[in-house]
Amino acid sequence: TSESDPKEPSSRDTSFLVPRGRFSVTKRCDQRGSKRTVAAKLVNKKLLRRDQVLQEIRLLQTLDHPNLVRLLDTYEIANSYVLVLEMADQGRFLDYIVSWGNLTEEKAALYLREILEALRYLHNWGIAHLDLKPENIVVEHVSSQPVIKLTDFGDAVQLSPTSSYFHPLLGSPEFSAPELVLGQPASLMSDIWSLGVVTYVVLSGASPFLDESLEETCLNICRLDFSFPEDYFQGVSAAARDFVCLLLQSEPERRPSAASCLREPWLQPRGVANTGSATFNHTQASQNHPASHLDTSRLISFIERRKHQNDVRPVDAIKAFLHTRLLYHI
């Protein structure tokens, strides 16, 4: 191993570890030489082909943005390909929100702006993440300020304007766009839908489409069957709910781009509103961001449920069922 290689991953301090993925496990390690704390993503050779891992590595090597986790090094051991990544010292996004508390709409909007900055950068390069979910959003403190970062590019792909890409779905489709659930071509707007679901979860601690079975969850997604129960959304502004609805539109072409989302009034920092002029509109900004704290108690059970979720059935297997139910409205 080279001087920059990390030590063998140990079980030391597992509080910030990403849960075991479908094909990999990520561990906290120390780099030899620099003693820097890093994240080592071990991809099981038996579960993923070399060319699939290389695709993720090549993509990561081209990316450079403050809201994306950087690839530092790669190497290979007997049973795994190892990707050495930046360590986000505050851990997973939802864990961070729960541990720090005092979540307001203004804070939520600031966090979501950073995710959208990452998506705008990726989408400008024609890259769709295609696995945007809370577990793939992490937090790092820089100068005592939280910086939100996207990670895990195992499903990401550079889309071509001349050909369609059909993304295979495995496991829970909870954050997946209708076009992916139905086996239709993926698009950059598939990420925008996923961000809409993430926004709903952050605001309420509940999942908008989750049902008792994989089949019913998929039907809810395809039928756009969700609501804002008052006991979950008490104190959440109309502007926040409207932002969720803007992103959760069945037709990909009707969803706004990441750049357009960043111009939405609800996402503007307090004291700045998108009025089309250079002047600040304090009244509008205050209306967009009520000062009341959001209830994060339900996020604790949401996080626990996601930790123990291990359904890896291919969603493709229920495609015929979905088309039949949707065709006959049953």
Task: Describe this entry's structure for a reader.
- The protein has 330 residues and is an alpha+beta fold.
- The chain folds into 2 domains: 14-86, 2-Layer Sandwich (Phosphorylase Kinase, domain 1), CATH 3.30.200.20; 93-327, Transferase(Phosphotransferase) domain 1 (Transferase(Phosphotransferase), domain 1).
- The protein has helices spanning 50-62, 93-100, 105-124, 178-181, 189-204, 214-222, 230-233, 238-247, 258-261, 282-288, 297-307, 319-327; strands spanning 24-30, 37-44, 71-76, 80-86, 127-128, 137-142, 145-150, 157-158.
- The strands form 3 sheets. Strands 1-2-4-3 form a 4-stranded antiparallel beta sheet, with helices on one face. Strands 5-8 form a two-stranded antiparallel ribbon. A two-stranded antiparallel sheet has the order 6-7.
- Strand 6 (137-142) and strand 7 (145-150) form a beta hairpin.
- The longest helix has 20 residues, at 105-124.
- The N and C termini lie far apart (59 Å).
How do the helices and strands line up, and which of them pair or pack?
Layout: E1 24-30, E2 37-44, H1 50-62, E3 71-76, E4 80-86, H2 93-100, H3 105-124, E5 127-128, E6 137-142, E7 145-150, E8 157-158, H4 178-181, H5 189-204, H6 214-222, H7 230-233, H8 238-247, H9 258-261, H10 282-288, H11 297-307, H12 319-327
Antiparallel strand pairs: 1-2, 2-4, 3-4, 5-8, 6-7
| Tally of domains | 2
The CATH architecture of the largest domain is Orthogonal Bundle
CATH topology of the largest domain: Transferase(Phosphotransferase), domain 1
User: How large a portion of the residues is in β-strands, by DSSP E?
Assistant: 5-15%
* Helix segment tally: 12
What is the first-to-last residue Cα distance?
Answer: 59 Å
Q: What is the H/E order? A: EEHEEHHEEEEHHHHHHHHH
Proportion in helices: 25-40%
Question: What is the top-level CATH class of the largest domain?
Answer: Mainly Alpha
Mean pLDDT: 86
CATH superfamily of the largest domain: Transferase(Phosphotransferase) domain 1
Please outline the major beta sheet. Answer: 4 strands, antiparallel
Quick one: overall form? globular
Estimated radius of gyration: 20 Å
Stretches where pLDDT falls below 50 for ≥5 residues? Answer: 1-19, 274-286
